[in-house]
Structure formats: structure tokens, C-alpha cells
Prior knowledge:
The chain is an alpha+beta fold and 102 residues long. The protein has one domain (3-95): 3-Layer(aba) Sandwich (Glutaredoxin), CATH 3.40.30. It is built from five helices and four strands. The chain has a four-stranded mixed β-sheet, sandwiched between helices. The radius of gyration is 12 Å and the shape is globular. The mean pLDDT is 92. Residues 14-75 form the Glutaredoxin domain.
Amino acid sequence: xxxxxxxxxxxxxxxxxxxxxxxxxxxxxxxxxxxxxxxxxxxxxxxxxxxxxxxxxxxxxxxxxxxxxxxxxxxxxxxxxxxxxxxxxxxxxxxxxxxxxx
Length: 102
């Protein structure tokens, strides 16, 4: 859990992902389209990936990937991020962390 907490505290926008996950890919495309640059951690390519998956779930995410953190706080998975985007709340959340270019 320490590694996950350190990673999310060091960056404004963090995405825990797996390279084969289609929902993770959808979030990467969303962030790219709105001009955000997340720090992406591919858990299936990290030797500590399984431990990190468990840590993400202990922090409250229902599924280990995709898991999005903004400003060190768990936002959630695809549903939560898409809901924020559709309601117009995602971009204002990202602006303070300069993770967005618009």
C-alpha cells in the first residue's frame, strides 16, 4: 500500500491500468482527448503489480483497474470518471494539478 500511496501523492492525475484492459484504454483515450496527461502505472508490467492491485482495492476501488486518482484522492473507475466528464466536473478537478492543457 505504501507504494500506491507514494505514487498517487507524487502526481496530480494517476491511472492504475493493465495493458490488456479495454476500459483502461478508454480512459487513456478520454484523458488524451481532453488534453490531460496522467501518470499511468501498468500493473501487469510491474513486478509488484499484484500487491498494488490489492492495495488499490483496499483503498476503496471496486475493481483494481482502471483506478483513477486525482490530487491523491481515489476518484474511482470508468463509471465514476465518465460520469464526472459528462457532468462537466472532470476538467475543473484536473486544472489545479496542471495535468490538463485546456
